[in-house]
Amino acid sequence: MGRRREFDVEKALDAALCVFWRKGYEGASYTDLTEAAGVERPALYSAFGNKEALFRRALARYYERYLDFIPEALELPTARKAAEHILYRSAELNTQYPDHTGCLGINGVLAGSDEAEPVRQTLIEARAIGEAQLRERFERAIAEGDLPNNAKPDALAAFVMAVLHGMAVQAKAGFSRDMLEAVAEQALSTWPTRSSTHSWKSSPG
Amino acid sequence: MGRRREFDVEKALDAALCVFWRKGYEGASYTDLTEAAGVERPALYSAFGNKEALFRRALARYYERYLDFIPEALELPTARKAAEHILYRSAELNTQYPDHTGCLGINGVLAGSDEAEPVRQTLIEARAIGEAQLRERFERAIAEGDLPNNAKPDALAAFVMAVLHGMAVQAKAGFSRDMLEAVAEQALSTWPTRSSTHSWKSSPG
DNA sequence: TCGTTAGCGTAACGATCATTATTAAATTCC
DNA sequence: GGAATTTAATAATGATCGTTACGCTAACGA
After folding, report:
1. What is the largest CA-CA distance in chain B?
2. Which residue from A89, B79, B88, B169 has the least number of CB within 10 angstroms?
3. Mean of pLDDT values over B130-140
4. Is residue A127 within 8 Å of residue A41, measured between CB atoms?
């Protein structure tokens, strides 16, 4: 009995998911969410509860709709193939939607409101400067013969920076120094293989 | 001429730096900043300008006071030693202050206000679940002989997750899919060396 | 000692935040 | 068809946000 709902709850959730993905949890205002969903404020509240509950619903949907490659990967025959699948599919997911790049989980606490955009740009620039310094150092290393000629200094610098960012996120998640150093050691060492020959040249597809 | 300042501007900046480090840019309210600095609001405004300018000052101070190991590292004789120095010193920096873990630059857009702490915890748990799944998969790989017995599944899983987080941050900074795939490839490949023997067992100190 | 200048501190500004009372409209049951 | 009940939509809630008038106090030059 009673009046029936006029808007599609699933569509509204998808719209909210995209807003959270782009602006993060705190950066997404309820005004943003209602405008994206095309629904008035009390309608969203009655359908999902408060903002936190709505975000949790969006996060769950994100895992089942966009992070489905993780359970896929875990069933691949080798650990190497699993890691490969996750890394490459993540590279795709992080870049395929120009208006909400990155990962919802990270952006949830990494992105912010529009007013903070200048500060975000400053941090992005600072990050890029550090990476450029590292790349130049690696270019010098190639010239000095300290790195092989076929080494790619830009990819190497981007990789080290990625590990740095990853460690920073993990530290905020409570990782100990020992664990972070294990990550660093892994980044610096070769991937463990059964045979001691380690001549993979992986191809994404 | 006129009255001279009663509070130490440097101390106030240090206090603001710690608040930004812990709560991020948007998560740090002016009330938080003034309370940490032990200074009334207009005093902070007159000394630094607005919140954004204060954050930029804090960021500059962070680079010169805490990220001084980066220029240090760039002067080391080999690229490998440079990367090693940066990674291990970063592991230390990210964990040595229990009340403001991680990196100020990342936290600036990753941390948030206290009200969002439950959501942050949810994201941290979701991250940990993904890492645990990966670790279990790698444990199985060792049992199946697909990974060597001396492989450390927890470190390996943490490493892959670190690269994932790093890629997410880089995607938010505008990286293309190709660049992210280069990062993934680097993570999956061995570190390039002059000699084909790659038997580093690095020690942090 | 007096006028000028600048920092201090209270208190308020307008804007926006997430959340909800409240009233009007629509649908089902009796 | 009237009563019950759920949703829609307007508009307001109290709180907090970053920012700033404004009056008071302290220190300097004359």
Report:
1. 79
2. A89
3. 96
4. no
Q: Indicate whether this model's pTM tops 0.85.
A: yes
Query: With a 7 Å cutoff on the CB, does A202 touch strand C?
Result: no
* Torsion sign (Cα): A136, A141, A147, A149: positive
- Tokens representing B196 are 């084909």
| Cβ contact A101:A95 at 8 Å | yes
Phi and psi at B3, nearest 5°, equal -70, 145
Tens of pLDDT, residues A129-185: 999 999 999 999 999 989 888 888 999 999 999 999 999 999 999 999 999 999 999
Backbone torsion region of residue A190, taken as left when φ is above 0, otherwise alpha when ψ lies between -120 and 50, otherwise beta: beta
Q: What are phi and psi of B193, to 5 degrees?
A: -130, 160
Query: Which residue from B55, B188, B202 is facing A191, i.e. has the nearest CB?
Result: B188
Architecture, CATH, for domain B8-112? Orthogonal Bundle (1.10)
Query: Which residues, numbered 73 to 132 in chain A, qualify as contacts with chain B under a Cβ-Cβ cut-off of 8 Å?
Result: 74, 77-80, 82-84, 86-88, 90-92, 94-96, 101-103, 105-113, 116, 118-120, 122-124, 126-128, 130
Cβ-Cβ contacts under 8 Å for B38 (sequence gap 6 or more): B7, B12, B15
How far apart, in whole angstroms, are the C-alpha atoms of residue A87 and residue B160?
Answer: 8
Q: Which of B70, B133, B94, B191 is nearest to A166 (CA)?
A: B94
The answer to whether the CB atoms of B164 and A87 lie below 8 A apart is yes
Residue A117 has a CB neighbour count (10 Å cut-off) of: 12
